[in-house]
C-alpha cells in the first residue's frame, strides 16, 4: 500500500493509454495526460509530476523528460490492443514497476545509498574493455554459479563502422539477462546492461540507466574515462570497476576520481589478457586493488556478497 498519493505524467496514445489511465486511477494515483510535448513541458514547469510513463519508441520524449530527474518508466513491448488479456497483463507489469519506484520514493531518506532505492542491488560494477574483452567477460560471467546481488554494466570499445553490430553480444551464462543500453533500463541483480557505444548515459537516483543524445567525447566509444566520471557522480551502492583486456589506456585518467568516490578498482591480470595494455595501464596507476584471471575475479567478487 502506498504511503502518499503520487502524480504520474502519461505520454501514451490509443488503447494502451486508456488502459493505463484506468489502472493508475484505480490504484489511487493522480494522472496527468500529456498528449503533446507542449503539455509535457507545461507540467514540467509546474514541477508536479513524480514519475513519467512514456512510449519507449519516442526518443524525443526521453530527451525532454531526462533532465527532470524524475522516475522514468518507458513503456515498451506494447501488445496488440485487440488482445485484451495480453493488454491487461502488460498494464499489470507496468504498474508493478511503478509501485516499486514510488514505494522507494516514499521511503527514501536524503542519501542516495538508501537500500530502499536499490532493492536487492548491493553493488554496481562496470566491466570495461576493448580488444579481447568479449571472451574475458564471458569467462568472468561464466565463473558465477549464481548471480551475486550486483548490477553489471558492460562497456566495450567498438569501431564506429561496426557499432551497428554491438547488440549482437549474448551472455553465455543463462543465470544472467542482457539489455542493450539504448533507451532506459533499470539496474537490477542478474542483469548486464551493455553501455551504448553511440550515446553517453545518465544514471538516475532510482537506479535507472538512460542513453542520452549526447555523443561520447573521447577517441574510443564508449569512452570509459567519461563513463567512470558519470558513475562516480551517481552515488551508486558499492560501485566497482574491472578493467579487462584491451589496447591503450582508456579509463586510467578517471580511476582517481572513481576511487575517491569509494569505487573498488580491479583489473584482469595482464598475463591472462589477449591485449594486456589496458589492464596494465590501470595497474600502473597504483589504484588497482585486485588482479586475477577472469574466473578468479568472479570468485572474488562473489565472495564479497554471497556467504
Do you know the CATH topology of the largest domain? Rossmann fold
What is the rounded Rg?
A: 20 Å
- What is the CATH C level class of the largest domain, in words? Alpha Beta
Total count of domains? 2
Order of helices and strands: EHEHEHEHHEHEEEEEEHEHEHEH
Main-sheet strand order equals 7-9-6-5-12-13-14
Which overall shape is indicated by the principal axes computed on the Cα atoms? Answer: elongated
Q: How large is the count of helical segments?
A: 10
Number of DSSP-assigned strands: 14
Low-confidence stretches: 107-116
Q: What multimeric state do the chains show?
A: single chain
Distance between the termini: 32 Å
Name the CATH superfamily classification of the largest domain: Methylesterase CheB, C-terminal domain
Largest sheet: 7 strands, parallel
In percent terms, what proportion of residues is strand? 15-25%
CATH architecture of the largest domain: 3-Layer(aba) Sandwich
Summed over residues and divided by their number, the pLDDT gives a mean of 85
Relative helix content: 25-40%
User: What structural class should be given to the helix and strand makeup?
Assistant: alpha/beta
Amino acid at each position: 500500500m502506498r504511503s502518499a498519493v503520487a502524480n504520474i505524467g502519461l505520454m501514451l496514445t490509443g488503447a494502451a493509454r486508456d488502459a493505463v489511465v484506468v489502472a493508475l486511477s484505480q490504484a489511487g494515483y493522480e494522472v496527468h495526460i500529456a498528449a503533446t510535448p507542449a503539455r509535457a513541458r507545461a507540467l514540467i514547469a509546474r514541477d508536479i509530476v513524480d514519475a513519467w510513463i512514456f512510449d519507449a519508441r519516442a526518443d524525443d520524449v526521453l530527451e525532454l523528460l531526462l533532465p527532470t530527474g524524475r522516475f522514468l518508466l518507458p513503456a515498451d513491448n506494447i501488445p496488440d490492443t485487440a488482445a485484451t488479456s495480453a493488454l491487461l497483463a502488460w498494464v499489470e507489469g507496468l504498474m508493478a514497476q511503478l509501485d516499486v519506484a514510488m514505494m522507494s520514493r516514499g521511503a527514501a531518506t536524503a542519501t542516495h545509498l538508501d537500500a530502499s532505492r536499490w532493492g536487492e542491488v548491493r553493488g554496481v560494477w562496470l566491466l570495461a574493455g576493448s580488444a579481447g574483452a568479449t571472451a574475458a567477460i564471458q569467462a568472468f560471467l561464466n565463473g558465477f554459479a549464481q548471480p551475486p546481488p550486483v548490477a553489471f554494466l558492460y562497456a566495450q570499445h567498438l569501431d564506429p563502422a561496426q557499432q551497428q553490430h554491438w547488440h549482437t553480444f549474448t551472455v553465455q551464462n543463462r543465470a544472467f539477462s542482457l539489455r542493450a543500453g539504448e533507451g532506459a533500463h533499470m539496474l537490477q541483480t542478474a542483469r548486464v546492461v551493455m553501455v551504448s557505444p553511440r550515446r553517453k548515459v545518465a544514471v538516475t537516483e532510482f537506479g535507472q540507466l538512460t542513453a542520452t543524445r549526447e555523443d561520447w567525447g573521447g577517441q574510443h566509444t564508449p569512452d570509459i574515462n567519461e563513463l567512470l566520471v558519470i558513475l562516480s557522480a551517481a552515488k551508486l551502492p558499492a560501485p566497482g570497476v574491472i578493467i579487462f583486456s584491451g589496447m591503450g589506456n582508456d579509463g586510467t585518467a578517471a580511476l582517481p576520481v572513481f576511487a575517491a568516490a569509494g569505487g573498488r578498482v580491479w583489473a584482469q591480470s595482464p598475463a591472462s589478457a589477449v591485449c594486456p595494455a589496458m589492464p596494465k595501464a590501470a595497474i600502473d596507476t597504483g589504484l588497482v586493488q585486485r588482479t586475477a584471471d577472469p574466473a578468479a575475479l568472479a570468485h572474488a567478487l562473489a565472495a564479497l556478497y554471497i556467504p
